[in-house]
Amino acid sequence: MPLFPSLHDAVKALEHHARPQGYAVIKYKPSNYRGGKPRRMDIACACGGRKYHTIATGLRKAGTRKTACPFRVKVVQLDDDNGLWRVVVMRPDHNHDAYNPGAFPEYRRLSEAQVRQVEMLSADAGITARQILLALRAQSPRRLLATEQDIANLCARLHRLRLGAHTSTQALVARLDAEGTFHKEKLNAEDQFEYQFIGLDDGLKLVSRHPQLLMADVTNNTNKYGLKLLEINGLTSLGTVFPVACCFVPREDVPAFTWCFEQLKNWVTGEARARQLDDDAFIPHVIITDYDAAARAALTTTFPDSQLQVCTWHIIKNVATYARRHWQGDGNDDPFEPEPQRRETHSDDPGRWSGGPGERSPGEFVTAFKSVLHAPTEEEFDDRWNALIAGFPAQPRLIQYLEETWLPVRKQWARAWTRWYRNWGHTTTSPCESLHASSRSFIRNSQSNLLAVYHALRLQRTTVQEHHDRAVEREAIRPRAPSRLPLYNKVSEKASYRSLELVQKQARAATASLLYPEERALPECTNSFTSQYGLPCKHIIASFLAVEGDGPNRRVTTKEALPLAFWDNHWLLRDDLVSFLVVIALFLD
Fold first, then answer.
1. Which H, E and C letters describe 255-318, residue by residue?
2. CA angle in degrees (0–180, nearest 5) for 68-72-77
């Protein structure tokens, strides 16, 4: 047997020998101490020792690898000046088959450097044990035998070490206090969390610029406590969504939602007072939700002056489902499906439903209802509603469903009413749904604690902010058409592309009315476009244009560029333009 300079080297040599043979070795018993250090170490097979017989009730499945394997080796330090170690095989036999090295935790153990890497990677809430394992394998010079479960167990152990004597919930509150993040908790009779509200937009950085529209929706299966996650999101001038706040609630009922929205109101009101602004400076003009009675009741109580709107995509989907289930007569095999959820549903009015002769179907019923939904005026709404009733006399149950469920709240979804509120053309919660999907990529699984969920949402918020800032920089330094047109000289590089595209559509209508005053004359201005978008309508734009030339040489030119004051603060790319806008507005007055 060769000699080894240290006990560690001798054990490593035994492990290197045992691995391809299908077994693992462990340090079994140190002895023969001198100076506080052992001079003999007995080495056993990892399958040695007696089988463990549990006396538990069997609720947890347990097993053992022990087979009482007799294999024994001793490593002894020689009595000479060199202090070398010798390996002596005492019992060479095994009583079990050879196993794959991956079956032994001894071979799946990570090195100290790898443990430090796992500790660093596990601090990222969005990375999973599988992703960490793949990163380790990519950097390992030899085959890594650790499993995904090994990594998950190590991450859990590291997490417990970070928490120390605190629970995850206590650590969450401590972190929120240290960060200065706005948060409120409501405790039950057992001093346990019942509700928790957390503000994600620090200092209302984005809300202060885009307070007019909020969207609220509930996400399930985000934490191991079974709490619902109420996410409140806003919309930027670029059309992107950003997290405003979140709230953990045990139930989707009126008391829970009322408490959450009251905390939101207290938060934004307090921030407005701190800036010496009116209390309602950051109160939303419009709040969009799905058709949840509890949420709508809570919002009506908490934000009585805000326009509550119901997601039109969810309405159409519900009407389509009800129509298929309760259709009377033939035509129920119609393969109608609602359109994919879109951000804007008011941009394309399908026009009045023809209601011509022919066989009726659930799909045609939904088409008629969509025509009612998109009616531009209250008079047109009534006409299209009457046409729907007259067109489906054989479907009284469907008509009754619309009359009892949706007609009483028509001001919350019909274009004839919602176009007068500053919702930027958004009538669905699809941006909120897209952010939900993004949240799932940051939250590891449905068994996370509240601290891990918050860490994931905070990471998502940071990512959204960075993406928004980069997009704003791109729009500011790389102007697109139509921003290069003389009509937008005062607005280019200061307002978002999206606002310029909306205004350009109005400019085309204004241009056509000047070139063809008889065929393309503008209707009477209702101011609905400006009310909804906070942008100049075609009637205003027409006053900044002029017609030059005669006959075929007639063309429309710009008399004066549109002033930035016609753009709502929501559309501006930079914070410093907001105060400048006030000066311009005063000058124009």
1. HHHHHHHHHHHHHHHHHHHHCCCCCCCCCCCEEEECCCHHHHHHHHHHCCCCEEEECHHHHHHH
2. 150
Q: CA 430, CA 233: separation in Å to the nearest integer?
A: 11
Three-class DSSP labels, 544-576: CEEEECCHHHCEEEECCCCCHHHCCHHHECCCH
**Collapsing DSSP states into helix, strand and coil, what is residue 92?**
coil
CB neighbours (10 Å) of residue 177?
10
Q: What is the DSSP string of 202-236?
A: GGGTTTTTS-SEEEEEEE-S-STT--EEEEEEEE-
Tally of CB atoms within 10 A around 560: 13
Residue in this structure with the two tokens 């124009």, named with its chain if needed: 588
Alpha-carbon distance of 387 to 114, in angstroms, equals: 71
How many other C-beta atoms lie within 10 A of the C-beta of residue 486?
13
Q: What span, in angstroms and rounded, lies between the C-alpha atoms of 196 and 325? A: 39
DSSP state of 69: -
Average pLDDT on 380-405 reads 94
* Residues 520-543 pLDDT 10s: 999 999 999 999 999 999 999 999
Q: Tell me which DSSP letter residue 127 carries.
A: -
- Write out the two tokens for 344: 């804007």
Q: Looking at this protein, which amino acid is placed at residue 141?
A: P
What per-residue confidence (pLDDT) applies to 320?
A: 95
Q: Which pair of tokens denotes residue 562?
A: 């549109």
Q: Tens of pLDDT along 53-104?
A: 666 666 666 677 888 899 999 999 988 767 899 999 999 999 988 888 888 8
The pTM (predicted TM-score) of the whole model is 0.76
Q: Which of 213-217, 251-255, 443-447, 469-473 has the lowest mean pLDDT?
A: 443-447
Q: Which residues pair with 45 in a beta bridge?
A: 25
Checking DSSP bridges between strand 37-45 and strand 25-34, what pairing results, if any?
antiparallel
Residues 318/291, Cβ–Cβ less than 8 Å: yes
Across the chain, mean pLDDT equals 86
Closest CA to 42 of 72, 69, 70: 72
pLDDT of residue 284: 96
pLDDT score for 183: 96
pLDDT tens-digit profile of 340-379? 444 444 445 666 676 665 668 899 999 999 999 999 999 9
Cβ atoms of 450 and 168 closer than 8 Å: yes
Query: In sequence order, which residues have a C-beta less than 8 Å from that of residue 534 and are 6 or more positions away?
Result: 422, 424, 567, 568, 570, 571
Quickly list DSSP for 530-546.
Answer: HHHHSS--HHHHHTTEE
What is the SS3 assignment for 490?
coil
Q: What's the Cα-to-Cα distance from 105 to each of 93, 135, 278, 547, rounded to whole Å?
A: 21, 20, 64, 84
Measured distance CA(454)–CA(176) in Å, rounded: 10
